[in-house]
Design a protein that fits this description.
The protein is mainly alpha-helical. Helix content is about 55%, strand content about 0%. Helix 1 packs across helix 2.
Length: about 100
């Protein structure tokens, strides 16, 4: 008796305007991908973003209190970021100091 294997891939068919296909083909070519791979990757990435946006975060009342305290506390300065913010922008730097 023959066994039936579970299907691992499912076809998806779309009708797209020629301009859309041309744009997809150009982008896929720039990435060195096939149209199918490019569209699959883009669709999965978009789907993951939507799912993450609608994800529910569950925590205990104690965890929520700790979370709220952490986000409500004043920000602690990061010395490296403070130093970086104090540097003049490259277009503001004195020309004599760049020589």
């Amino acid at each position: 008796m023959a066994t039936v294997a579970d299907r691992k891939e499912y076809p998806i068919s779309m009708r797209l305007p020629e301009a859309d296909v041309a744009m997809i083909d150009r982008a896929a070519s720039l990435r060195g991908r096939s149209r199918t791979d490019f569209v699959r990757e883009a669709a999965v990435r978009a789907a993951e973003e939507v799912v993450m946006e609608h994800g529910l975060v569950r925590m205990s009342p104690e965890g929520f209190t700790a979370f709220m305290e952490a986000v409500s506390a004043p920000a602690a300065p990061v010395p490296e970021m403070v130093e970086l913010a104090r540097r003049p922008a490259p277009w503001e730097a004195d020309e004599t100091s760049q020589r």
